[in-house]
Design goal:
It contains three helices and two strands; from the N terminus they run H-H-E-E-H. It is mainly alpha-helical. The termini are far apart.
């Protein structure tokens, strides 16, 4: 067990360490999902997922060309 100044420093160090690990996954998700389906506005990660999405959700329509 630590006492006094050592204890306070250890608590500060642990608080900083734990604070860095916390975060929202929404930010990471927004960065990863770059392509939006123009028909239903679903966000997708890449062109291959968009083609698969069109094949299953919008079979009568053609997927847009690769605009990236």
């Amino acid at each position: 067990m630590t006492r006094g100044k050592q204890k306070i420093e250890a608590q500060k160090k642990n608080a900083e360490k734990n604070q860095k690990n916390k975060g929202s996954q929404f930010e990471a998700r927004a960065v990863a999902l770059k392509i939006v389906c123009p028909v239903c506005k679903v966000q997708l990660a890449n062109q291959n997922q968009l083609v698969d999405h069109y094949g299953s959700k919008h079979p009568k329509e053609k997927p847009p060309s690769n605009s990236e």
